[in-house]
Amino acid sequence: MRKSLIDRVNACADYIIETNNTIRQTAKEFKISKSTVHKDIQERLKEINLEKYEKVKEIFDSHIKIRHLRGGQSTKEKYLIQKLES
C-alpha cells in the first residue's frame, strides 16, 4: 500500500476516535466520499492497525444502535423549523 494511502487511513481513524464522528461527517471533513471512508476503515485499517480498527468499529457499532434515534431527532427538528418559519 502507498504511504499516502496509509497516512489517510490512519488520519481518518484518528479523527473518528478523537471526535466520535460518523462516516458522513468524516468524509466531509477529509473531502472524500463516504464509500472511500467506509472502505478505508472496514478493509484497509484492519490490515494496517488492528487495534485502531477495533476502536473505530466500537464507535460505528454504537452509531448503528442509535441511528434510528438520530433520524427521528433530525425529522423532529426539521418540522419544528418549518413550523417556526410559517
In brief, what are we looking at here?
88% of the residues lie in helices and 0% in strands.
Helix fraction, binned, reads over 70%
Mean pLDDT: 91
Beta-strand percent range = under 5%
Shape descriptor: elongated
H and E string = HHHH
CA radius of gyration is: 16 Å
Low-confidence stretches: none
Q: Would you report the number of β strands?
A: 0
Question: Which structural class should the secondary elements be placed in?
Answer: mainly alpha
| Number of separate domains | 1
Count of DSSP H/I helices: 4
How many strands, what sense, and barrel or not for the largest sheet?
none
- Give the N-terminus to C-terminus distance in angstroms: 54 Å
Tell me what the structure shows.
- It is a single chain.
- This protein has 86 residues and is mainly α.
- It has one domain.
- 88% of the residues lie in helices and 0% in strands.
- The chain is built from 4 helices and no strands.
- The N and C termini lie far apart (54 Å).
Per-chain topology:
Elements: H1 3-19, H2 23-30, H3 34-48, H4 50-85
Helix pairs in contact: 1-3, 1-4, 2-3, 3-4
Name some characteristics of this structure.
86 residues; mainly alpha; 0% strand
